[in-house]
What does this fold into?
Amino acid sequence: MVETANAEPHAEHPHGDPSRRDFIHIAAIAAAAGGVATLAWPLIDQMNPSGDTLALASIEYDFSKVVAGQQAVIKWRGKPVFVRHRTPKEIAEAKADDHAALRDPATDASRVKPGKEEWLILIGVCTHLGCVPNFGGGAYGGWLCPCHGSVYDTAGRIRAGPAPLNLFLPDYTFTGPTKVKIG
It folds into this structure.
């Protein structure tokens, strides 16, 4: 038997080697999926809550080093919080003004926790335009906003100036003899 040069020993696949073609398809699909994931990740990741917001949703503070007549300023949810250790004189002044003509009426007892009246915890942001008031200014012995002159008493109640409301009270609970949880 004589073979001719034109005869083919086996038939070749009409579209090339099948295993090679399958590999190219799989590689292209994998590259496309990787590209889609790379583009989609920033969109998905930005939907997560900010790390600093989660970390400060509630905080616990040890107020044992804040002596009577002083205050600590801590940061919570991006705002200053005043943890004020009031003196007996400050408490008496605040109680004496419970029935004064107040723009935003509130008693001293409604602004502190029962049995812990020496501790006043306030969000330290002026209710007028959001400035941070300083303690010890003004005619009422409390806080004075340096920007527009709002004056707060020793219970954080607005007494004079353009602010419409008292300094806000955050949600807080005492978790121990020297610890408070804010938020």
Notes: The longest helix spans residues 18-45. Residues 62 and 176 are 9 Å apart (CA to CA).
